[in-house]
Amino acid sequence: MEGKMSWSVADAVDYKGSPADRTKTGGWIPAMLILVIEICERLSTLGIGVNLVTYLSGTMHLPSAESANVVSDFMGTSFLLCLLGGFLADAYLGRYLTVAIFSAVQAFGTGMLTVVTKLPQLRPPPCGSSSGASKCHRANGFQIGLLYLSLYLIALGTGGLKSSVSGFGTDQFDEKDEKEKSQMAYFFNRFFFFISTGSLFAVTVLVYIQDEVGRSWSYGICCISMLLAVVLFLSGTRRYRFKKRSGSPIVHILQVLVAAFRKRQLKHPANPAFLFEDFPEASRIQHTDKFRFLDKAAIGEEFHGKTSTMNPWRLCSVTRVEEVKMMIQLLPVWATTIMFWTIYAQMMTFSVEQATTMDRSVGSFGIPAGSLNVFFVSAILITLAIYDRVIMPAMKKWKGKQGFTNLQRIGLGLTLSIMAMASAALTEVKRLSVAREAGKAAAPRGAALPISVFTLVPQFFLVGSGEALIYTGQLDFFITRSPKGMKTMSTGLFLTTLSLGFFLSSFIVSIVKSVTGGESGQGWLADNINHGRLDYFYGLLAALSALNLAAFLYCATWIKPENAGDGLEMASAAKNSPAEDKC
User: Fold this and answer.
1) Which GO molecular-function terms appear in the entry (predicted)?
2) At 20, which helix (H) or strand (E)?
3) Which fold would CATH assign to domain 1-127+134-245?
4) Is the distance from CB of 489 to CB of 334 less than 8 angstroms?
5) pLDDT tens column, 496-542
6) Strands 19-21, 365-366: pairing kind
7) Residue 4: per-residue pLDDT
8) What are the structural domain ranges in the chain?
């Protein structure tokens, strides 16, 4: 019996519920099967998102600002639903079933989108196709409704599987085994590399197919690839390791808040030692004086002459309370990183629409507008390579540090986003001047101007480089600064910054459209961007980003530096003791 147990993984079971045998479960093969799911998810979501604005404006005949908001809301919902997927995985389904169910939902949504974009009855007629008129007829409610239904099915699938796929991948490695622990570090590196490769394929091959062959063909490829990925994922069921559910961190947070509110009238005990604690000594978090109103959740009611119960909605341990305090202390940095993803949203909306009006020819080949994101993805890969191979070794040699701290990386990413919007504004000034000189200002949307689309490259490259820094910095910050029992929750908190960034973009676009539109309804964000002042809009975003950077720097001064090295070593980061903040 002892020999058998030495080959088992202590905290994992196999598909039958028996202790997982490390010789028959886990490792690279099941991890790669899980990785395929994420590659296909990235392929589908990005392949649809980066070029969707051209379909909405050019085929469905939606106004420019509305098209941008549809894309932003679609992408924002995809990331917001990660919270739902994470909750279901932690509390009810487990990661395996969550990935399987929601990947199937995404495949179904992509299949529906394939049909919606294929059938001519589900889109309006081309401009000027009837009665010799040049007027474009907007898609009707039924056509828009089916399109939205397919998009939000995809968003639901994306959010559900994205919340669990990386965690389920790491479940296949035992952190207590040194060999498997090192393999886990390589898994994260390859995870990011492969999804970046999938992104590169999406913004090149798939976008080209959408523009030159047909959108339904491109979306059909996404659907088939996801279905094949689901089949491959299910084929590895016997090889997977499954971790037992420990309950949702969201529920734990709500329990502390509810318990503290219920006992808001009680007085704090003179000595914190009287607060309730039932965690083992080794895993306890020491009491702090921050956010003392939450301490009331740990006051035993017998301390005030009442009978206490073990109902977690009435009585929580000091450790649970301190976990919530630690999560609250992440919120200032969380709030000040949302603006970056608002800038990111412009690369998939207005920047792509700019590209549709410019000269995209390279010899006899015409570059699809959505494929400009290839410079965005390339910037990510180049920046990560330079950081990993040049900056980190240099800083280790000269200063003894493993690269920039996570807060420094976030600050650099925010700075690059400001530079990107300044560059975008200057480029738009040049594009509008060319439009006026060429007499194209009154031309229909999509009319090519005698200005190269490559003048847009700096804004794509700056945002891409910024994402490489801020994404890794945010992920590192939220993992290392959160309590051990809420690592999944902190990752979900990080992903909500992406979601809220897209929603904030929609909000700002709507406000600017309303304020600057006037009676004509054109303003800065006119339906025909040659009639608008997109440069003013980009300048506004640059100014808001500068104010946001100042707020971030103020918040960062209150964060205590970590004692350990601060490189993005995700496998070990999840086990580091979280550092305390000053405030």
Assistant:
1) transmembrane transporter activity
2) strand 19-21
3) Growth Hormone; Chain: A; (1.20.1250)
4) no
5) 898 899 999 999 999 998 888 765 557 898 888 888 899 999 999 99
6) unpaired
7) 44
8) 1-127+134-245, 249-327, 329-360+370-583
Q: Which backbone phi and psi does 114 adopt, to 5 degrees? A: -60, -45
Query: Cβ distance 383 to 403 under 8 Å?
Result: no
Largest CA distance in the chain: 86
- Cα separation, 444 vs 457, in Å, equals 24
The residue count of the chain comes to 583
Residue type, 82: C
- Give residue 7's pLDDT band: very low, low, confident or very high (50, 70, 90): low
Mean pLDDT of 135-164: 91
**DSSP code string of 47-110:** HHHTTHHHHHHHTS---HHHHHHHHHHHHHHHHHHHHHHHHHIIIIIHHHHHHHHHHHHHHHHH
Rounded to whole angstroms, the Cα distance separating 208 from 250 reads: 42
**pLDDT tops 90 at residue 207:** no
pLDDT surpasses 70 at 374:
yes
Q: Residue 332 corresponds to which tokens in the numbers above? A: 């200032």
Say whether 547 sits in a helix, a strand or coil: helix
Fold (CATH) for 329-360+370-583? Growth Hormone; Chain: A; (1.20.1250)
Angle (nearest 5°) at CA 139 between 138 and 141: 120
The answer to whether 571 touches 185, Cβ cutoff 8 Å, is yes
Distance between CA atoms of 477 and 470, rounded to whole angstroms? 10
- R_g of the chain, CA atoms, integer Å: 26
Instruction: Give the separation between CA 378 and CA 385, rounded to whole angstroms.
Output: 11
Tally DSSP H helices, then E strands, for the chain.
Answer: 21, 7
- The pLDDT assigned to 302 comes to 58
Q: Which residues on neighbouring strands pair with residue 358, listed in sequence order? A: 449
One fold for 1-127+134-245 and 329-360+370-583? yes
Please, which contacts does 223-226 make with residues 24 or more away whose CB atoms are closer than 8 Å? 223/44, 223/107, 223/110, 223/111, 223/113, 223/114, 225/40, 225/43, 225/44, 226/40, 226/41, 226/44, 226/103, 226/106, 226/107, 226/110
